[in-house]
Amino acid sequence: MQSLNQWLRKKSEIQQRRAAILDAAAEEGRTLFPQEVATFDDLGDELATVDNHIIRLRAADDANRSSAMPIGKKSYSGPNFFIRKHGQDEQFQGQNFTRRVIAKALAFKSGGDQTAAQIARARWGKFNPQLVEVIKAGVSGGSTQSGEWGSELVAADERFVGDFIEHLSQITVFDKLPLREIPANVTIKGQDGIATGFWVGEGKSIPVSAQDFNSVTLRPLKVAAISVLTRELLEDSSPSAEMLVRDGLATAIGQRTDATFVSAAAAVPNVSPAGILQGLTSLGSNGTTAAALRQDIVELYSPFLAEYNATDLHYVCNPLLAQRISLLTSTLGLKEFPDLNASGGTMDGDPVITGDNVGATNLILLSPKDIYRIGDSGLQVSMSHDATIEQDSSPTGDAVSPTEASATLMSMFQTDSVAIKVVRRINFAKRRATAIQFIGDAQYGVAGATTA
Fold first, then answer.
1. H or E stretch including 352?
2. Which backbone phi and psi does 58 adopt, to 5 degrees?
3. Statement: the pTM of the whole predicted model exceeds 0.70
4. What are phi and psi of 362, to 5 degrees?
5. How confident is the model at residue 286 (pLDDT cuts 50, 70, 90)?
6. What are residue 308's phi and psi, to 5 degrees?
7. pLDDT tens string 114-157
8. Which of 164, 65, 66, 84 is nearest to 123 (CA)?
9. Residue 312 — left, alpha, or beta (φ > 0 → left; ψ -120 to 50 → alpha)?
10. How far apart are alpha carbons 391 and 409 in whole angstroms?
11. Is the dihedral of CA 100, 102, 107, 111 positive or negative?
12. What residue segments make up the domains of the chain, in order of their start?
């Protein structure tokens, strides 16, 4: 019987094929051809069959799990711990990637006495030998050298890193949106506006059509974070501890990415991209009621309609604003927008993406296909147990132009901790100036609120 992972990959392949059909039609500004409709529906039936099989496999896996069994310390110098007998499948998304980070950190902390593969074999080898083989092939053992140490975990096996990136896609606006992916370091010249044609009488001069053009070049920029973890946390083998490590890595990267992406921040050359709201003027809201919101939607749509670019648009807002909109009711007590909640959904048929870093009163309407992003190259994870870390969200240390660090310094060696550095190389930019419109003072459902 095929493993659950194989069926999950099969499901992902089907979803990608369906998305490709829709994307092709969207690119050409048309509906689906009859053959495309048939293929899309057939893939939908196949997806339903695969989903049902995945449910059965997971149920069988849960039934086969036995009670916890203690493991001794023959090949691992940490405390006793427990494992459960189950398949190679993850209990939460990105768990295998997180375990690789943990194994590497503990190997490094051992000072070379044990390799990451040895630790992984002791902790997870009986029920996840594939993970051990990946670590054995791609991650070397610990080192006694001080300072930053480690190779890129992404180089060993893309599947585990890809799963972690997929987890990121569920928590960040940047990753949730179907942005247009382009290669890095390539200049793309495009049209920023619609040219107008004319009917011309016999012998008459043909009017000149004005067109606007622009060019976009995206070079990989670095978003990074450092988390400090105690050895006790790393040695705790429970899934909850592993999930805590995963969430720490994801949050560190995701929060900074989104905080810039949905902002009006200007670009910093060779450091960070401009936020998608940079250079835009907010539209004023018409009020706090459902009727006012519908009028706001009309005004948000108007620029897209003027540019013949009003298909496949997405809303972006804060979870609280989405929740308030979802609570708007008619005079009969019926929900005005029943398909919306704090996690997102749809509003009058258009997808709504929510994110904690979106401004509390911002209702954004954008065209994802008109925002470029470079292909994700994965994550670089490095760590140190000897470094001295400047424990500050605004560190002053600078190696390029040497500057003294702040006084908030902490030794990893002295505190028996490990500093884990995560780096993701991404970039994004608007394809055209009219890719985004937004209301900046949205307060729908707030009693007594005033709008400009």
1. strand 350-354
2. -65, -40
3. no
4. -95, 125
5. very high
6. 55, 45
7. 888 888 888 887 777 777 777 665 543 333 333 333 333 333 34
8. 84
9. left
10. 6
11. positive
12. 4-64
